[in-house]
Design a protein that fits this description.
By secondary structure, this protein is of the alpha+beta class. It is built from two helices and three strands, in the order βαβαβ. The N and C termini lie far apart (31 Å).
């Protein structure tokens, strides 16, 4: 995903798929991006890969701010 979308800063896998993979029923991904897109765009990107498991996605946008 980061190769196609340079605004994505980080993709972090978290949850049971990390801590107890033998019991996990899905993969949880946290996507940190400079410019969030429509949520369906992230779901479409996962669908393109067609993983053999469910994927939950959380998106956090980083917005410029001044001090």
């Amino acid at each position: 995903m980061t190769l196609k979308r340079p605004e994505i800063v980080e993709v972090i896998q978290f949850g049971s798929s990390v801590y107890a993979p033998e019991h996990a029923r899905d993969v949880d991904l946290l996507i940190i991006t400079k410019n969030p897109r429509d949520y369906d765009g992230y779901l479409d990107a996962v669908e393109e890969v067609s993983p053999p498991f469910n994927v939950d996605i959380v998106v956090i946008g980083l917005y410029p701010f001044s001090l």
